[in-house]
Specification:
Number of strands: 0
Radius of gyration: 26 Å
Protein name: Large ribosomal subunit protein bL20
Structural class: mainly alpha
InterPro entries: Ribosomal_bL20, RIBOSOMAL_L20_CS, Ribosomal_protein_bL20_C
Distance between the termini: 85 Å
CATH class: Mainly Alpha
Family: Belongs to the bacterial ribosomal protein bL20 family.
Order of helices and strands: HHHHH
Low-confidence stretches: none
Strand content: under 5%
CATH superfamily: Ribosomal protein L20, C-terminal domain
Largest sheet: none
Mean pLDDT: 96
Number of domains: 1
Number of helices: 5
CATH topology: c-terminal domain of poly(a) binding protein
Helix content: over 70%
GO molecular function, one term: rRNA binding
Shape: rod-shaped
Keywords: Ribonucleoprotein, Ribosomal protein, RNA-binding, rRNA-binding
Length: 114
C-alpha cells in the first residue's frame, strides 16, 4: 500500500505561516524553516506585548493623574486615598483623561475629595 501524505493540508499550513511572515527581512520571509521559526518567535513577542501594553498604559495613567493632582497640592497617593475614602469610583483611565483633557472637571473631583 502506498504511503499516504496529506499534501493539501501540509501546503495550506505552510502557506498560512508564509503569509504571516510577509514583510519580514531576508530569508525570514521566503524560506520555510527560517520563516517558521521567525513567525513562532513573533507570536511569542506579540503575546507578551499584549500583557505589557496593559502595564504601560496603567503607568501612563498614574503619571498623568499624579501631574494633575500635584497642580492642586496633592500627591498621587494622597489623591487616590481620598478618592477611596469618599467612595468615588472613577478608574485611572477616566481620571487620567480628565486630568489631561478636562482640567476643570478634574479640579471639581479634587475639590470634592479635599
Amino acid at each position: 500500500m502506498p504511503r499516504s501524505v496529506n499534501s493539501v493540508a501540509s501546503r495550506a499550513r505552510r502557506k498560512k505561516v508564509m503569509k504571516q511572515a510577509k514583510g519580514f527581512f531576508g530569508r525570514r520571509k521566503n524560506v520555510w524553516t527560517v520563516a517558521k521559526n521567525a513567525v513562532e518567535k513573533a507570536m511569542q513577542y506579540a503575546y507578551r506585548g499584549r500583557k505589557e501594553k496593559k502595564r504601560s498604559f496603567r503607568s501612563l495613567w498614574v503619571t498623568r493623574i499624579n501631574a494633575g493632582a500635584r497642580e492642586h497640592g496633592l500627591s498621587y497617593s494622597q489623591f487616590m486615598g481620598a478618592l477611596k475614602k469618599n467612595n468615588i469610583e472613577l478608574n485611572r483611565k477616566v481620571l487620567a483623561d480628565l486630568a489631561m483633557n478636562h482640567p476643570e472637571a478634574f479640579k471639581a473631583v479634587v475639590d470634592q475629595v479635599k
